């Protein structure tokens, strides 16, 4: 997964700062409600970013587990092959 750069975070914060300005408030919404809406929007975006970061961690962890399981299975197969080879060698002696 792609990691978000610090510059992207700054750009997002600046965009939100612009959107939070009273000039962008619809006419039928009072100032206090607008501030509350902006606060909720920021919390939602923060939560989404945390979820994306956790999702990336889970993806990386799943990939690591998959690789380790494959290595384990390969080692188990090599062990079985070695034991069979040893048994065959013992029979042929």
Could you explain how this protein is built, in words?
The chain has helices at 6-19, 31-92. The protein starts with 5 loop residues before the first helix and ends with a helix. It is mainly alpha-helical. 82% of the residues lie in helices and 0% in strands. The model has no long low-confidence stretch (mean pLDDT 91). The chain contains two helices and no strands.
Tell me the layout of helices and strands:
Layout (H helix, E strand, L loop, with lengths): L5 H14 L11 H62 L1
Amount of helix: over 70%
Main β-sheet description: none
- SS content category: mainly alpha
Indicate the proportion of strand residues.
Answer: under 5%
| E-strand count | 0
Distance between the termini: 56 Å
Low-confidence stretches: none
The gross shape turns out to be rod-shaped
Order of helices and strands: HH
Report the C-alpha radius of gyration, rounded: 28 Å
Alpha plus pi helix count: 2
Task: Write down the overall mean pLDDT.
Answer: 91
């Amino acid at each position: 997964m792609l990691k978000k750069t610090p510059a992207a975070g700054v750009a997002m914060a600046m965009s939100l700062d612009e959107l939070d300005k009273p000039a962008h408030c619809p006419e039928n919404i009072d100032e206090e409600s607008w501030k509350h809406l902006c606060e909720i929007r920021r919390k939602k975006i923060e939560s989404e970013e945390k979820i994306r970061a956790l999702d990336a961690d889970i993806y990386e962890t799943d990939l690591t587990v998959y690789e380790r399981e494959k290595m384990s299975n390969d080692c188990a197969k090599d062990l079985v092959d070695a034991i069979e080879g040893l048994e065959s060698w013992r029979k042929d002696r």
